[in-house]
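Need the bound structure for fe (iii) ion, inputs here:
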Amino acid sequence: MTRKLFRNGRIFTPIDRGTPLAGKHQGEVAHLPNGAILTKGGLIEAIGDETEVLAAVSRRDVDEEVNCRGHCIIPGFVDSHTHMCFAARREDEFISRLEGADYLEVLRRGGGILSSVRAVRAASEDELFSMTRQHALSAVRFGTTTIEIKSGYGLDTESELKMLRVIERIGQELPLDVVSTFLGAHAVPEEYAGAPNDYVDLIVHEMIPAVVARQSSTRFCDVFCEEGVFTVDQSRRILEAARKAGLGLKIHADEVNDVGGAALAADLHATSAEHLLRASDANIRAMAHAGVIGILLPATAYSLRKEYAPARRMVDHGLPLAIATDCNPGTSYTESIPFVFGLSVLNMRLSVYEALVASTLNAAYAVHMAEHVGSLDVGKNADFVLLDGDGPVILAYHAGVSPVLQVYKRAEAIYSE
Ligand code: NIG
Ligand code: FE
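Answer from helper R.:
Posting the output first, comments after.
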């Protein structure tokens, strides 16, 4: 197995204690000003101060040495919430929103998510793959090495399975770890207009069994719990069925209105509750007690021109936070974690280290991948990013451009500026 030595790096990595970092630990990051990483077969064999790592290995046993030239090294980003599998952009809708149209109103009129559904149903599997691949490659250029991608633009059994196959193929053909989430409950499709409970029946009795029967990499089930989309009762039915079928639970909760999504996430001990722009203090505390991870998506608040999620209050209440792009054609069209990092620090007031933990380790926990990724620790994947800066603060400071110089996945360079 190939051994590689990466030397002369300023390493910043979250400290993995076996659970997501929360409260005063949310920003727990180790800094090795003169660090080195030794890898073997794509995994981290040793990491530490360069002199210590060099003392423990004979240079003869190293196949390749990389001088990181004093650049900052952080773990590869884990983008824990995306809808980047879609077949067409929605620029016209964006323009209407700029002119004042309301996002949920557009959906009620058959646009928004439903227009993406029409495009996905009409697209061939190869067309859908090619657009998704473009988005995933773009994410890699911004430092993402692990990504969650949701279905949810098919909304009939065959089209949802088509999406899940495409998402799986991304993981097979690109140098990325991909986690797929079934989001059949993203909207009520047109053919079920006025009969949402019949669509919930279809999800529970046909779609979820079909998804798990594939024995694919689909790990989670998500629901858009929102006014005019799925109620708390409908969401609960779907998520309980998903849990019985062996899937982990995620909820789009309190994105536009607090209809009880965060409370449901706490009640079901979901893995994560995502968005949370409107979450109340009581529900934030309930989620923290229930072991839920909050995934915040500040590029969505930015694009919808809404108030950001109350991140500081969440840290104070001990809710572990992740941040993610939400990359989708409607509310947040970006593959850039650096952009989201900047919004988190400047507009949600996370500290730089809190945002680093949120975009790596806590995000890895939120997709059940922390055993392998999310921090630079012995035994984990050698997934890391070299930044053109002295520290991760560059991600917020150098705005609107990418400070990403190189991206490594399992010790292989997968992007170089
Ligand atoms: O996370 N809110 C639901 N889903 C996405 C938007 C999807 C879309 O508009 O296509 C979100 O904001
Ligand atoms: Fe989303």
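Comments: The pocket of fe (iii) ion (ligand 2) is lined by residues 81, 83, 252, 326, 328 (CB under 6 Å). Residues 3-75+375-416 form a domain with the Urease, subunit C; domain 1 fold (CATH 2.30.40.10).
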